[in-house]
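Lab notebook page, bench 4
Experiment: in silico fold of construct C2
Operator: M.H.
Input chain length: 450 residues
Purpose: comparison with the prior construct
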Amino acid sequence: MGIKMVNVLAILVLSLLASTTTSQANVFDVTSSIYGGKPGSDIAKGLAKAWRDACASESASKVVVPSGAYKLKEATFEGPCKAPIEVTIQGTLQAPKDRSSDTWVAFSSIDMLTLWGGGTFDGQGAHGSKDGDIRDIRFSSITNSIIMDITSLDSKKYHISISECTNIVFDHLTITSPTNDANTDGIDIESSTRINVTHTNIATGDDCIAVGEGTNQLLVTDVTCGPGHGISIGSLGYKPDEKPVLGVTIMNCTLAGTTNGARIKTWPDSPGVSTASDILFEDIVMVNVENPIIIDQNYCSGDEDRCKQNTPSEVQISNVRFKNIRGSSATPIAVNLACSPSVPCQNVELEDIDLTYNGNEGSLSSHCINVRPRTTCVGKALACANLPGLPSGDSPPPPPLYDYHSPMIYTGGPDNNSCWWPRPPIMGYLLISGLGVWLLQELLQAYSKL
């Protein structure tokens, strides 16, 4: 577990590709006389034709939607394309308020895609129907690409969906929905590898980022989340044969006024066995968050009948670290680790946790069940592992005498220990990792094919 430096370097590499491979590209302007797009009109047909021509180009190309407001019934950008391709959205694309499809804009089977331009995808879905599996923008089977400097506004349901993708950077996105619009997830990720979400602002009525099954080597950095339901691993364990979640790093993020902060959630009564492991939440600021640190293996939102079965989750959670998490909790229980009695959480660590509660509904406390967390530099009120017979700090674990089925609630006073130490800068990891050499080799190979 640790910082995914491959993903950090990917930002630099993909940005370089974006700025060089399309600098002298063939331009396909949707408002040209060839494609006939005009502000205020539906440009779906013209945009589809511009994409087909650009995708068929033997050299780097770009499709441009200039400034202005355009209607767009729906759009599908499908590859494979013959060369690197850029889609520059400078204007605002407006979805119809009544839709017949579950996807408004789809990108699929494309290598070396650049999507940017400062424009807006306006889903016009505020307070609309939330029925069905509606995704405003879908990315499926996209590789070696960068999506940056775009806005997703008022999605019909989920904003951005990522599936079966590899090596993509999402940089400087703005995602916004009304707070009371349910199921308006900002970014949903599943079955994808080496995804990086960075420098992004998300304010929705549901999860800012939801990490689904089959996600590997995900890095989320410098994301501001709120309002919404926080940044979540899951929910997992809803379907049979779910693929494992492995290697997720969430760091340098701020969550303000959210329902949850750093969260892992799984369904009870799982139809199959699955795993979530090697997860790091580090350097997170919580501002009046209801559940700053939470593992919930009895998640039942929208399907309460599953909880009534009283059948525990079969998702094994392991190797989870919450490090340097600070700020304020809107409720007394700032740390709530509720793991499954069937597969208790393994190797959970709390390190350098500094949370406060200024409300009047009790004192600052923590709750743990079916988990034996290790703690370092954690005040007693937040370290429910600091109960008799359980490890704390760097002490070795005691003999396995603990009854995992017994919940623990600890409300001791904070110990005010000072636990600050210098954190090595990211560049230090870059210099010693040797991964930069590998990525440069990959970059040279990519250029040689152009």
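Observations: The two ends are 36 Å apart (CA to CA). The first helix runs from residue 5 to 21.
Next step: discuss at group meeting.
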